[in-house]
């Protein structure tokens, strides 16, 4: 398996998220079902390469990221959204909005770093074999989401090929 690192993951996720259909669906899943976009993107990339994991390992990833997201990322996102109410009242609105967005993106990077660190932690190993417990289908199942996401896996496989090829 190609060793994933923060920079590579950020690039692949950004390129995958740049597709309008990916962004639209990820935001829909985030807003309606409280799914984490970083988990969706990274799990899609891994599942597109037929990586499987033990359910307990995936649970650790999900819990670690969701805990960080609730404690940090969501707070910045909420601040950015609430700041919109001041658009007409503050001359510094654009500057502050951009700084909040920049901070939010840094927290998104931290979430991706957490995913990578937990996936590569010494307590667990990748299981590269025919799909048994694929990461994205497991994540959707734990959240009771029944969605057709095969189009996402195809885009993820294409993105993976661009980076590794």
TrEMBL record:
InterPro entries: CHP02444. NCBIfam families: TIGR02444 family protein. This is TIGR02444 family protein. It holds the Pfam family DUF2390. It comes from Catenovulum sediminis.
């Amino acid at each position: 398996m190609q060793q994933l690192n923060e920079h590579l993951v950020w690039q692949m996720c950004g390129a995958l998220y740049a597709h309008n259909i990916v962004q639209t669906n990820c935001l829909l899943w985030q807003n309606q079902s409280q799914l984490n976009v970083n988990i969706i993107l990274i799990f899609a990339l891994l599942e597109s390469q037929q990586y499987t994991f033990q359910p307990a390992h995936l649970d650790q990833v999900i819990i670690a990221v969701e805990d960080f997201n609730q404690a940090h990322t969501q707070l910045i996102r909420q601040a950015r959204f609430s700041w919109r109410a001041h658009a007409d009242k503050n001359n510094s609105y654009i500057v502050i909005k951009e700084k909040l967005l920049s901070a939010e993106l840094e927290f998104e990077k931290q979430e991706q770093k957490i995913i990578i660190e937990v996936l590569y932690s010494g307590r667990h190993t990748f299981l590269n074999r025919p799909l048994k417990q694929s990461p994205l289908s497991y994540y959707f199942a734990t959240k009771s989401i029944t969605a057709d996401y095969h189009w996402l896996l195809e885009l993820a496989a294409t993105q993976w090929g661009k980076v590794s090829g």
